[in-house]
Design goal:
The protein is α+β, with helices and mostly antiparallel strands. 22% of the residues lie in helices and 31% in strands. The chain has one domain (27-168).
């Protein structure tokens, strides 16, 4: 009888542990620690704190296959129709960079949208807000396919426009 009770208790304890892990994984994650993934290409986006910049509201990296890393930022435009204008850059020079040099290494630009679990579309939130379920980078694939980062010396699997929340960095 005792062995039977112990055997029955193991699945219950396992289920409780799984429920706790699932609840922790679904707990709110601030956008600056969020990790997103794109299923088709395996690309990932890792957000990092933007620091003390007065203009950059979000900072992130997009990691593509063949260890190609794109540096990303978002800056909110001014005015009544403010939007998070995102940029992805590949191998930009460092230091005092001209606008021409920055334009030459930018592989994607556009508004970054978000979507919640109900499919409601919004905008990428600034740091401190909860990470949305999905991020949408309009026309990302075609822009990246035309970039210097794509091809024999770069990445080969082109991501689609939608990235889903995978987890939260510790």
């Amino acid at each position: 009888m005792k062995a039977c009770l112990l055997a029955a208790a193991k699945p219950v304890a396992l289920a409780a542990g799984v429920a706790l892990v699932t609840a922790a994984a679904q707990a709110a994650c601030p956008i600056q620690l969020a990790v997103y993934g794109e299923a088709r290409s395996g690309a990932e986006i890792d957000f990092t704190p933007a620091g003390t910049s007065a203009t950059i509201t979000n900072s992130f990296r997009m990691i593509l296959d063949n260890n190609v890393v794109l540096d990303g930022i978002a800056m909110w435009t001014e005015g009544s129709a403010g939007r998070p204008h995102g940029s992805l850059m590949y191998r930009c020079p460092t230091g005092d960079v001209t606008g021409e040099e920055l334009a030459a290494c930018t592989v994607w630009e556009g508004v970054i949208y978000s979507a919640d679990e109900k499919g409601t579309i919004g905008l990428l939130p600034a740091e401190g807000a909860d990470a949305p379920k999905s991020l949408i980078f309009p026309d990302l694939g075609p822009s990246l396919e035309m970039s210097a980062a794509y091809g024999p010396a770069g990445f080969s699997r082109v991501p689609w426009d939608i990235f889903s929340l995978k987890g939260c960095q510790e």
